[in-house]
Batch of 2 targets.
Target 1
Amino acid sequence: MIRRRSVLAAGVLAPLRWAAAAETHYPDRSVTVINPFAAGGQSEPIGRIVNAHFQSVLGQPFVMENRVGAGSTIGGQFVARSAPDGYTLLLGTTSTFTIAPYVYRPQPYDPIKNLAPIIALTEAPTVLVASEKSGFRSLEDLLRAAKKEPGRVTVASAGIGSFPHVFAEVFASLVGVQLTHVPYRGGGPAMNDILSGQVDLFFEVISTAAPQVQSKRAFALFASGTARSPLLPDVPTTSELGYPGLNLTSWTGLAASAGTPASIVELLNREANVVMQSDKMTDLLAHLGIQPVGGSPAKMAERIAQEADLYKGIISSRQISVQ
């Protein structure tokens, strides 16, 4: 007869043995990297370079898989619920890690409790883009019109609770104007309607906004941050204009499910930091107008915690939710 004490001991030791085995041989098969956004987004080329490096140095395929929907929470939830073995990773953004989990109800996952941060990879300035038809050529033009006729000016977003939506809410609150929100099913359709003049404004990452501004199909009123971007050297920053509270960036990071062995997290972090300094990555980020971040898992965890507090307050005060 197996005694109860032996059963309990086996139950306690089994996860430890499994974790030790996972650490010793990782990876011994292909690793899936979940991209919670549609193919073609700004994080995809970054993720592909990281995946190629991981595959080269670790000897197993790292395969990108798109699981889209619900503001990136479908992909985020899938990883949060996956086995904590390092074989399912999340290539998420600001929305995935600090916004969308607090917008959707019931809450799909807790990014602080259910995910294991690996590394914050990149961050990008956000550009306030105005349509040609709007007539806005400066922030002053916009504020004058918005205060004269509250609610007349329209602002597009990539969907309710998306980063562009939340940025628009922060902006409206900070400068004291009322804008009419027009949500779209993604950033592509929103930008298309900026170009056709169907909506007035859109807060978009610089990699997507810059080509439209450079071709003069749209106008940039400002870019978030403290230093002007080489891609848009004539566009003032939010700091220059006296709005440091608008220095919000869209960032990309890599995470696993909570409970993933520390040695696996540290291995992936170390190699991700290596590839972030590679010539191929440096050239890509310069082309996109995006800055590298890098650093430790603890640094990413701190960033998630700080920004989650910020965005939860905004989401609550502006009553943003999706059932």
Target 2
Amino acid sequence: MTRMGGGVRGLRRERGAVGIAEGARPVCGPDDVRLEVVCVGVCRTDVYVAEGRIPVPEGRVLGHEVCGVVRETGASTRGWAPGDAAIVMPSIACGRCDGSGCLAPQMLGIDRDGAFADQVVVPARALHRPRGLPMRLAAYAEPMAASMAVLDLDLPREGRGVVLGAGRIATLTLRVLRDAGFTSVTMHGPRDGRLERGGFDFVIETAATAETLAVALAALRCGGTLVLKSRPHAPVPLDVAAAVQRRARIVAARYAEMDAAIALMRRAPELVADLLGPVLSLEAFDVAFASREDTKTFLTPLDDPRAVWARARGGA
């Protein structure tokens, strides 16, 4: 079991670099839970933080795609107990609103200490029950919720659509759409040649640059929908005149409900099975950060994370 007392070992960004260092044990407030970290997915956002392209406070612990086991609950926390398996929604609502459209969320690993560590403290409202998901699937719930967000945009299921991109999120978004009954949607990567102009009812970008947004607008039919899906670390220009000329409908997709993502992975684990890569020790973070984009690499602070997850209530 991970050390739950004393300091916290974590992957921190300090003095312009990332490395494993010990820091103070975070306080578990009255509405919080303390999780023993079991498994954490490595994402492009983590790499950008490590490289300094996304600024964070000195000493920030990275990591946000996490599943773990509850080890401590705050005095006001209800519904969770030590030994419960849990998945964290890393975009944590401010707590002053109902959370459905929070304009001031805190992102785990950026705005508050993240999960590449022995333990992490989060508000209980950020937790979701894995309902028997295996460990890697549980740690992949956040990317699934991000991909499923396109289903909330009232896109035409019989319309012709294209997902721009070639990485995991593009692939998963395509699979989610097809699973939901979209019959004429394809994926187009940067090496796939020129994309047909004016031929699509909707275009979903998954890696926004000025070039990809220009390609997306050009591919739309008049009155078509451009879906902004990615979260680039810096502002990206958009040709407003071209959007107006096409009478483009521009919408953004952030997250679907985490419980819906968990339910989909329970029903159709094959949607993500081939996207899940190895689980490495936390000390191998440099290898994980250099991993290919086609499969997800995970980090763990534990010697036997699967055994810890299997023993937790609600794990598998």
